[in-house]
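Final report, Chapter 2: Outcomes

The project's central promise was a pipeline that accepts a single protein chain and returns its three-dimensional structure in a standardized token representation, suitable for archiving and comparison. That pipeline is now operational. To close this chapter, we reproduce one record exactly as it appears in the project archive, with the input sequence first and the structure output second.
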Amino acid sequence: MIETVKFGFELYEKFSKNREIQRVLKDNLYRELKFNLAILNEIEKCKNKINFIRLILLFKTEFYRTIRNSFIDIRKIIDEQEININETVIKNKNFLKWFKNIKTNVKLIEKIYFRIDVLKSLAKVEITKRKDSYQYLKTLMLVLKKEIENE
């Protein structure tokens, strides 16, 4: 445990000083996000529960897990910025209400990975959520993708 904390602290110092490392990690986030969006597109088309569960288990979370396990503050990689959400971006009124609690890109990332972890955990015991849960996750991801592309 002490070695992990020490490793995390060393990485933290490197990230705070090296913009190239930050860019590479942000690129990893972007690639993982695009992969997970592709999985969500397949989930939308899926009719078979077994394949549905298999698809959910394919979600990637390496980026966030690496950051979290290294005790690195995600704000060292992603500059925390306010996100602007409006009706033109999010058409679903319920989703728009839920988005009111997500003020920054960092909170958005945390929300996405929390939801992925929940969905994967449920899938491991063969429980699936309603389709709108996946549509909400897709909306979260599309907003983040747009935020990253606009930086």
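Archive annotation: DSSP finds seven helices and no strands in the chain.
This record, like all others produced under the grant, will remain available to the consortium after the project formally closes.
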